[in-house]
Amino acid sequence: MFAMIEEMRREDILTFANRDWKALADAKADYWARRKEAMSAAEALAVGERLRRHARALKPGWPDEAERADDLAHHVRISEALGAVSPRHPR
After folding, report:
1. Using CA atoms in the order 42, 46, 48, 51, what is the torsion angle rounded to 10 degrees?
2. For residue 31, is it within any domain?
């Protein structure tokens, strides 16, 4: 790793540090918004599964019982909130 640092030039580091980070963040957000919009349900589920596997690789006991209970409570609150909304009638 240190050999790589010795090969870096000061101007390259400054170019990297001074790049337009907001433009990069905006471009990334735009890319993912378009990507998610075009994603099928199967693709979205596959992405979720890959994220779940990655989380389990990082923390094998995830989710623990407290996290599962918290998640269930969150889903119950959402379900109740959605149940309280009147259905939308087509015009």
Report:
1. -170
2. no
Q: Which residues contact 39 (CB under 8 A, 6 or more apart)?
A: 47
**The tokens of 23 are what?**
């433009």
**Backbone phi, psi, residue 61, to 5°:** -85, 5
pLDDT single digits (tens) 11-41? 999 999 999 999 999 999 999 999 999 999 9
Number of domains comprising the chain: 1
Q: Note the pTM of the prediction, 2 decimals.
A: 0.53
pLDDT in tens, 45-82: 999 999 999 999 999 999 999 999 999 999 999 999 99
Residue 76 lies in a domain: yes
